[in-house]
Amino acid sequence: MEALNSQENNPPNILTHEPKEKVLKVLEMVLYRNNRCNVVFSDGSAIILHPKGDCFTYFYENGEKARHFIAFPPVKDRIKDKLVSSVDFYNKYCSNPIVLLEEAFEGKISQKSSEIKKFYWKYDSNTQPVKHKSGTYSYSSINGYCKLKLNPNKFIFCAEFLQKLPNKSLDWVSNGTSDKRKLKQVCKYALVKQYFSVNKVPEHFLFPAKVLYPELKGFELEISEDLQTGVLGNESKFYKQLTVDEFSTKIPEVAGMNIATYLAEKTSRYSQSYSKTSIDTKSVGGPPEKDSRLKEAGVWESDDVSPSCSSFSYKKSNISLIWTKGATYRRTEVDKVEIFIHGDKTILIARDYGNFFDHYQVNTPEGKLRTFPITAIPLYSVSESQKYTFKTLVEKSLEMFRNTADDMKEEAKSEDSLQDIWIKSITSITDKDIVDTQEVPGCGRFFAYRVKQEGLGEFNESIEIKFEDRTHLRMIKGFPLIKINTFFGTELKLNLDEKLEFTKFLTKEEKESIPYYIKTGLEYMEWAFLSLEERYKREKEEITHQNRLESLCGSNNTLY
Predict the structure, then answer these.
(1) Does residue 317 have a pLDDT over 80?
(2) What pTM did the predictor assign?
(3) Is the CB of residue 39 less than 8 Å from the CB of residue 26?
(4) N or C: which end of the chain has fewer CB within 10 A?
(5) In what order do the strands lie in the sheet with 228-232?
(6) Where are the domains positioned within the chain?
(7) Chain center to CA of 216
(8) What pLDDT shows up at residue 71?
(9) CB–CB of 147/138 below 8 Å?
């Protein structure tokens, strides 16, 4: 808990090089469980980082909205500086880091006469990372083309390496030892920065990451076959070599999410302001169409209001963390919020949806200092070193709980409408709607229906199974709800899109039989609405498969 508290005390890396006339500060940051992030600045502007990690929405002080690629942020109005601060915060608290391509098209293009094919990492018993005054540790490759940094709180890695641009150009280059110069093709490289958590290190960065952070789990650093010895420059040392292909052409898997490291050619226009939620990728420029994900940006439908006006403009129950100047609020459970007070070792835990609060002091013999209910909030400050009162902290946590209650009501309302559609669909079925019926000895009777129904497509297809043990099952095609009446008379309504959790009132026989009923229903649903040609093809494939098994195992051997 102490380590976590010390991490919360470190605010995100706020902007540097601010103009003297106006210092820009971050007022509030909200992180959601789907990895969306809202950031509000002191000048009235705001940024929304979208879950896919490839684009962001910027709100000006007057509420005007503009959308940009994260890889191509505009420099004007300090938008790029604000984006860097937002990404730094996001990568500090989120397990799915954003790959930020920075300064790729601002004149800082390296030009090499030959292609970079390998990065070399020197390693011996005396290898030590470089510690900087800021507390950051760094470790560079021998040729200097790649560098890995570890931030002071040892939570985020930053990798810097040269990415080859897809285009080549002609230039006059030196011809070896001769003074003559000749015209030849040269490769262009841009500086790329990648951020990732210490818990989600890409495989090709494991070696330098272990040098920087020996406590890194899942990788043992030792001199083995993958470390080669030889003369490199004027030194004969052990070294680790990595091909550049691992960085430029292979998309690294970070936290289970594919993160592309594409770099597009510079265009005259990278972004454009929009008053609607639709996006025209042709006018945006940036990555080529095959790499662009702007066409999938359905997350923008609720972004008409700037977070500076309403920080909780998105789904409120999805909030996982709120950072403010005074404290950080972290949602650990549905009914629990942990409040870490900056600059102090005091922790306040709101539990039971904010009905009770526990006050802790870290590294003290007492541990828990006090517990109080919502009806008896202390009026004094939390600690002598801070001016924040219990009332201020409690109000913020209660706001999160109230938002959760509102969203739960909305979900319940949508669930009721789901039930209404279900009842309307089932009750409208008649005998003339039967398209298939079968009777399987030892199992039961099967019925398939097709009804012309509004609200569920052109036709509503459903099945009904009456098992011989008196269990009754109803299911609608393309609909998540399933209704089961067990042989003991228990009525169940299950949602297949959710984890099946059976009530404790069911008997052991019912709990064991229900998965079998569901499996049978799904198989019959797939079979009942096939055409005659498709059924004949399926039966032929099954017969062929069965004959092959009998020829392998012998006709006298049983498979089950």
Answers:
(1) no
(2) 0.42
(3) yes
(4) C
(5) 118-122, 235-243, 228-232
(6) 109-258, 430-529
(7) 22
(8) 64
(9) yes
The model's confidence at residue 393, banded by pLDDT at 50, 70 and 90, is: confident
Per-residue model confidence (pLDDT) at position 29: 86
In 3D space, the residue among 282, 15, 288, 40 whose CA is nearest the CA of residue 166 turns out to be 288
Number of C-alpha atoms within 13 angstroms, CB side, residue 440? 11
Cα–Cα distances (Å) from 351 to 291, 315, 323, 356, 374, in that order, read 45, 21, 19, 6, 10
Four-residue CA torsion sign, 9, 12, 18, 24: negative
* Torsion angle, alpha carbons of 56, 58, 64, 66, to 10: -40
Q: What is the pLDDT of residue 486?
A: 76
pLDDT category at 382 given cuts 50, 70, 90 is low
CB-based burial label for 147 (10 Å; 0-12, 13-18, 19+): middle
Q: What is the mean pLDDT of residues 453-479?
A: 76
The one-letter code for the residue type at 166 is: P
CA torsion, points 31, 354, 397, 357, in degrees to nearest 10?
-110
* CATH number of the 430-529 domain: 3.30.1120.30
Q: How far apart are the first and last CA of the chain?
A: 54
Model confidence at 13, in pLDDT bands (50, 70, 90)? very low
Residue 44 has pLDDT above 80, yes or no: yes
CA distance 47 to 362: 34
In terms of C-beta density within 10 A (0-12 exposed, 13-18 middle, 19 or more buried), how is residue 439 classed? Answer: exposed
Span 141-178, pLDDT tens digits: 877 778 888 877 676 788 877 766 555 555 555 555 55
- What residues are paired with 193 via a beta bridge? 160
User: 371 - beta bridge partners?
Assistant: 358
Average pLDDT, the chain: 64
Beta-strand ranges (E) seen in 141-265 are 146-150, 156-174, 181-197, 228-232, 235-243, 253-254, 257-258
CA angle, residues 143, 209, 3, in degrees to nearest 5: 145
Taking the CA atoms of the chain, what radius of gyration do you get in angstroms?
A: 31
Other residues' Cβ atoms within 10 Å of the Cβ of residue 509? 12
pLDDT, one tens digit per residue, over 61-73 is 887 888 777 766 7
CA distance 31 to 322: 6
d(CA 50, CA 360): 35
Contact 52, 90 (CB under 8 A): no
Residue 287 and residue 71 in contact, taking contact as beta carbons nearer than 8 Å: yes
Give the pLDDT confidence score for residue 350 in this predicted structure: 80
